[in-house]
Design a protein that fits this description.
Number of strands: 10
Family: Belongs to the ABC transporter superfamily.
Number of domains: 1
Radius of gyration: 18 Å
Subcellular location: Cell inner membrane
CATH topology: Rossmann fold
CATH class: Alpha Beta
Structural class: alpha/beta
Distance between the termini: 43 Å
Low-confidence stretches: none
Strand content: 15-25%
Mean pLDDT: 95
Organism: Marinomonas polaris DSM 16579
Protein name: Amino acid ABC transporter ATP-binding protein, PAAT family
Number of helices: 9
InterPro entries: AAA+_ATPase (IPR003593), ABC_ATPase_HisP-typ (IPR030679), ABC_transporter-like_ATP-bd (IPR003439), ABC_transporter-like_CS (IPR017871), MetN_ABC_transporter-like (IPR050086), P-loop_NTPase (IPR027417)
Order of helices and strands: EEEHEEHEHHHEHEHEEHH
């Protein structure tokens, strides 16, 4: 049994990541995330933000430390990682949609293939999810006929189709034209208000201020500072101030 709090759904302890070339990407990173909490991770490029996020579903293995998701150890060899990943949705910078499938086909695919849902059930749920992300009229469109913002919203609906307990977002707006950023952030705000546990790596400071329960600052592989948005953005931490001075 772990010593997780009743509310804590993610517990990362003393995480180290050292690549074979000697690059020390994560240095003793520890973070607890509570059920229903929105945690935003910011920091300069190369600070370890995305690496850390990817350890939470073992897309990146760790060199040392422990990670528990809903009391299941990700580092225990007996753990079925694919089973854990079914409950941890992930949205990347690039949309990774299947070009030969419609928006609905992309959303319904995993429930049919992985969860063995009947096609009719998966497609009905897919329609509801596409409606939720504002794409009811686009469900029969192929990715090539969707804007970047629309494709990213399909990717979010696809992740939600597996009924995850947690959603991880790795810079979900960084590949988008500026006018499309808002439509994706609006969907993420709606998920947050629905009580979804979310860990978000982003450069969108407005989103961090408005939606996050906590903001985390990483630099050079270290978790330097974490606080509520109000205290975070008014902090006099010198490393944080230097970074915010460059991005705000």
């Amino acid at each position: 049994m772990t010593n997780m709090t009743d509310k804590s759904i993610i517990q990362a302890r003393n995480i180290e990541k050292i690549y074979p070339n000697g690059c020390h990407a994560l240095k003793n990173v520890s973070l607890d995330i509570n059920r229903g909490e929105v945690v935003v991770i910011i920091g300069p490029s190369g600070s370890g933000k995305s690496t850390f996020l990817r350890t939470l579903n073992q897309l990146e293995t760790i060199s040392d430390g422990t990670i528990h998701i809903d009391e299941v150890s990700l580092t225990d060899r007996k753990t079925n990682i694919n089973k854990v990943r079914e409950e941890v949705g992930m949205v990347f910078q690039s949309f990774n949609l299947f070009p030969h499938k419609t928006a609905l086909g992309n959303v319904a695919l995993s429930p049919i293939k992985v969860k063995k849902k009947p096609r009719a059930v998966a497609e009905q749920e897919g329609r509801e999810l596409l409606k939720k992300v504002g794409l009811a009229e686009r469900m029969n469109n192929y990715p090539s006929h969707l804007s970047g913002g629309q494709q990213q919203r399909v990717a979010i609906a696809r992740a939600l189709a597996m009924h995850p307990k947690i959603m991880l977002f790795d810079e979900p707006t960084s590949a988008l034209d500026p006018e499309m950023v808002g439509e994706v952030l609006d969907v993420m705000k709606s998920l947050a208000s629905d009580g979804m546990t979310m860990v978000v790596v982003t450069h969108e400071m407005g989103f961090a201020r408005e939606v996050a329960d906590r903001v985390v600052f990483m630099e050079e592989g270290e978790l330097v500072f974490e606080e509520s948005p109000e205290r975070f953005f008014s902090s006099d931490n010198p490393r944080l101030q230097r970074f915010l001075g460059q991005v705000l």
